[in-house]
Amino acid sequence: MYTQKIGVLAILGILPMVSSAHHNVGANFDPSTTKELEGEITNILWRNPHIAFTLGVKDNTGRQTEWNIETHSLSIMRRMDVAEPFVAVGDTVKVAGWPARRDQGMFANNMLLPSGEEFVFTFSPKPADLRWSDRLWGTNERWFAEGGNTSASERGIFRIWSTTFSAKAQAVPSEAARTGFLNLRDYPLTTEARALQKTFDPITDDPLLNCGLKGMPGIMNNPYPMEFVDRGDTIEMRIEEYDTIRIIHMNDQTVLEPEPSIYGHSTGYWDDETLVVQTSHNNWGHFQGRGIRTSSDISFIEQFTPTRDGSRLEYQLIVADPATFTEPVELKKAWVWLPDVTVEPYNCITD
To answer: What burial class does residue 280 get, using C-beta atoms within 10 Å of its C-beta: 0-12 exposed, 13-18 middle, 19+ buried?
Structure first.
């Protein structure tokens, strides 16, 4: 297991997928420019969907300007064993990151702490990533777990599963899925869907702004823990992001006309150890929330298969929507079982 001490999440290849859970970082900040600031922390918002700091920065005349510093979520920090703030109001810190495209803001990539340690907001920092110190702070042990625990294979899917960004743990044929997310480099969009995607404005059209809920299939493309709970005639899927609960109706339960919802109506059955879930009546209207719109005819088939030793959960998602895709889209990923991980309250708070 890779246990080098490092900082929080933001590697350029994975950042767009993580940030899309809440808003488009590239639309709000300029990744082509890095700016440095030094000042006193005057406020801390330790919360989801994004942790934020206010930094009082003085110019040469002593005039102070307030900068809004933003970074990743509290849920990400918890996976790093950082459940509480690592700085306090009154601390003087240095921050480097991408300046906001509007207003006095920044997306933090580096922070020099009063201790002299540096918080580097990247997955796999190299010495060149350190700007001011030779001491990195933080841990990525859970995020890069190369395998799950094998001590309780008899539990099947009924446990808490964790995303890992280890390519070894993902071990799925799809290159895109090795990142730990459900993404393809390109999608087989219809002419109409591709034209509609070009009109998408992340500033005004992002459905996740201001803690907007994430529906299917986007909610399955999140990096936070999820749990399967056996309720008898139903299986409850508890997902930390947005405190989501999906209900899977078992035992051939039928509803004459299910009420459409952002998660849709899901029915399931067992194929040996694999849970197969079929979902329809979805009205979220988005694929991942980044410009691909979907129709009310969209449907999903999911397969959740625990490995024989119980350490890993393999996932396949097939999406069909003739109005959006010229052919069904197949996506794959895997989770691992880390017994010390829990599903925590998300409690998304708007700005």
So the answer is: middle
- Is 235 in a helix, a strand, or coil? strand
Alpha carbon distance 72, 223 (integer Å): 12
Q: What 3-state class would DSSP assign to 147?
A: coil
Residues constituting the chain: 351
Distance CA 120, CA 114 (A): 14
The count of structural domains within the chain is 2
Is 42 within 8 Å of 30 (Cβ atoms)? no
* 261 secondary structure, DSSP code: B
> What is the identity of the amino acid at 73?
S
**198 and 59 together in one domain:** no
* 218 touches 284 (CB < 8 A): yes
Cβ(326)–Cβ(298) below 8 Å: no
To which residue do tokens 């599903």 refer?
A: 343
Tokens of 93: 């810190």
96 and 196 co-located in one domain: no
Is residue 135 assigned to a domain?
no
Range of the domain at 99: 15-129
Predicted confidence (pLDDT) per residue in 179-202, tens digit: 567 788 899 999 999 999 999 988
What pLDDT, in 10s, does the model give residues 291-339? 999 999 999 999 999 999 999 999 999 999 999 999 999 999 999 999 9
User: Do residues 218 and 94 share a domain?
Assistant: no
Q: How much is the pTM?
A: 0.86
Sign for the pseudo-dihedral over CA of 340, 341, 347, 351: positive
